[in-house]
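Got a spare moment? Tell me how you read both lines of this record:
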Amino acid sequence: MKRLAPALALVLMCGAALAAPPPDPELGRLTARLDALARDPALGAYAPGAQARARDALVQLAASAGDRTLRTYWAYVARQRVELARTSAEIEQARAKLVQLAQERDRIELQARQNELARLRLELAQAHLQNAAASEETQRLQAQGQTYAEQAQQAQQEALQAKQMAAMQARAATLAKREAALAEQAIAAMQGRLDNLRAHRGPLGLQMTLEGDAFAAGAAALRPQAASHLGTLVKFVQSHPHARVLVIGYTDDTGSVTANLALSRQRARAVARALVAQGVAASRLRVEGKGEADPVASNATAEGRARNRRVAVILEGVSG
């Protein structure tokens, strides 16, 4: 019996080793990706809720190692949640940067106004000194019997120039206010168009089209005022939850073909990221950039070029 004991122990150890499940490479990869996000000094502090949900999915994936069907389900959920955690962190980081930029812009504008006020005060003081000097010079000239008419004419010309300068400054301020009002009206009109988007049939399926003013001129990122008004587009995409979604970006023919192609692809990606941020599954989305191809209007006019700068969101194969 004493001789059989070591052999029996060896057999039990071999059986235990054979029974232990092999390491799950996908679990390891997803865990490493989520850990890298958590350690990222730029992104790790953002989207804690999404990171926690991704961590829960990894726990469920690890626990489902013995059930192939359950493991397949939790592997899919874990992949989606890990990607969503990174995307959410990037979005929150971008929003934080936008807030910082807005605060910095407000600070700069306030400083500019203060500088302008100080400049005007200095000019007023200088004008007072110049007027006093002119008055003293006039009295001196009168006492000396010099011709007062020439000095009076010069003073009138300086006064006229001062009035003209004041009028020019007033016109500049009026134009600045008018431009700000027009910009606000343009933003409001753009948001109204986004809130009232209508679907129409295209060659690839039912689609909605975002106009180019949803992006800043020459920029690939959606305007914050546009990103906050994508509810109608999201409802359209979610109305057919099983349909594949094709996002295609277009530009006008201004600029090089290569630059236009890159810009159109970047804008399509920006719309896709905004849809994912509002709950659309990333696995449904496919992004293309076609640059200045397939114009819907003539590029010979500003209105036509504005219509050609667009992003189409298409429910592939959905006819109505």
In short: The first strand starts at residue 200 and ends at 201.
